[in-house]
Amino acid sequence: MERLLNIHIEKLPEGVYLATSDELQGLVAQGQTVAETLEIARDVACKLIEAQSQEQELDYLQPIAEQFNYPLVVGQ
């Protein structure tokens, strides 16, 4: 089942992007671009959720709604 996980992305002074989440403890991902950071964050989140789901239910993560807004990052 897909769940919605909010993450925070910030550009560090070194020029890389850092992703963290208040909703999923331990999620930290870093990449050269926003897209790369999101891909790494998704992989880390899946592994953390898999490890946690063996111990407890993940009711704190919201199921995906029928409709939702998604900020699409585009570049030129």
Verbal overview:
By secondary structure, the protein is an alpha+beta fold. The protein has a single domain, classed as TTHA1013/TTHA0281-like (2-Layer Sandwich). Helix content is 26%, strand content 21%. It contains 1 helix and 5 strands, in the order E-E-E-E-H-E. It has one helix spanning 34-53; strands spanning 3-4, 8-11, 17-20, 28-31, 62-63. Strand 2 and strand 3 form a beta hairpin. The N and C termini lie far apart (34 Å).
Spatial strand arrangement across the major sheet: 2-3-4
Number of strands: 5
The averaged pLDDT comes out at 88
Task: Tell me the Rg in angstroms.
Answer: 13 Å
> Strand portion, in percent?
15-25%
Q: H/E series, N to C? A: EEEEHE
CATH class: Alpha Beta
* CATH architectural name: 2-Layer Sandwich
Helix and strand arrangement:
Blueprint: E1 3-4, E2 8-11, E3 17-20, E4 28-31, H1 34-53, E5 62-63
Antiparallel strand pairs: 1-5, 2-3, 3-4
Which keywords apply here?
two-stranded antiparallel sheet, three-stranded antiparallel β-sheet, alpha+beta, TTHA1013/TTHA0281-like, 1 helix, 76 residues
Short characterization:
The chain has 76 residues and is of the alpha+beta class. Helices cover 26% and strands 21% of the residues. The protein has one helix and five strands.
